[in-house]
Amino acid sequence: MPSAPHPDTYKAYAFLEKGGDLKPIDVTWRDPQSGEIVVKVLACGVCARHVLVVLEAPLYSNCFFPFRDVPSCPGSRDHRRRRRYTGDREDLEGRTTRRRRLARWALLDMLWLSGRQFLPVLLPTAVASVPDDIDPAEVAPLMCAGVSVYTALRDMNAHAPDVIGIHGMGGLGHLAVQFAKAMGFRPVVLSSTSEKEELAFKFGAYKFLDGSKVNQAEELAKLGGAKVILCLAPDDNVVQSLVNGLAPGGEFFILAVSQGGTVPLGLFVGKRLNLRTGGAGTAKEEEETIDFVGAHDIKVLVNKFPLAEAQKAYEHRSAARFRSVIIP
């Protein structure tokens, strides 16, 4: 079935060479096939994981980069963005008046890595539903960082009011503190400086431990030990340095991947500790995350960039305190 009126081409940004910058390209419109939907981008987040794309380009450049500047055009393959259906709106929106269907990410890697490049379509199974009254720029990080933290806290072996260590106070960390507080835990922020101490307490931190001033593991032990430590900032030595701060039977949950590091297996065995990893969740879990944020008035902090500054937004990701989001 032909799609609604649309331009013949639309703008995107792509990594065209290994180690290169994001470059603007024109993409030819393709009508959706049976079982596919057309979407458009309202906001597009930037994740540290995108570094992998830069390092492997042009291997991945055909399946990546996501940033589109025509509001009526289809949305991106990139998995952390809010997208709205544009097509059979009566069928999709007739099922609910409060929510629209928005794209999610977990199934998209296989879809695009199978050779379908820059396609302006998605599978209906690759969407989540969000309320209309939420700022798209704030939804974008919830579909990556937000759901990662939410599912980690929800599924971990802890019960309120257990102490939860939160290593890192950036894009994931500022959400983790608020989520943990709302769930009844006692979030203890573990930071390398005191720069974000005021912000941590504003968001509900129970304690703030500056690693440049105190031994964080010892301070956690004085509190009875953390039931869980969430590692939300890349650090090769994080497990080694903080493991003694876990309570017996505790969990070390890694959501930020570093390039190396060691795990003291003797301590893990002796204290019956667990090492877990995780990532973004399913469409249903993304919907639960967004609903949880709305129910508890959780604040999502982002840095906004126009599409023309896509490369600047990407460069900003490593130095930014919070998630960069590109607004078409």
Automatic annotation (TrEMBL):
Cofactor(s) needed: Zn(2+)
Domain Alcohol dehydrogenase-like C-terminal: 171-292
Record bears the keyword Zinc: yes
InterPro entries attached to this UniProt entry: ADH-like_C, GroES-like_sf, NAD(P)-bd_dom_sf
The UniProt record lists the keyword Metal-binding: yes
CC terms in the record's Gene Ontology section: cytoplasm
Protein name: Alcohol dehydrogenase-like C-terminal domain-containing protein
Taxon lineage: Eukaryota, Fungi, Dikarya, Basidiomycota, Agaricomycotina
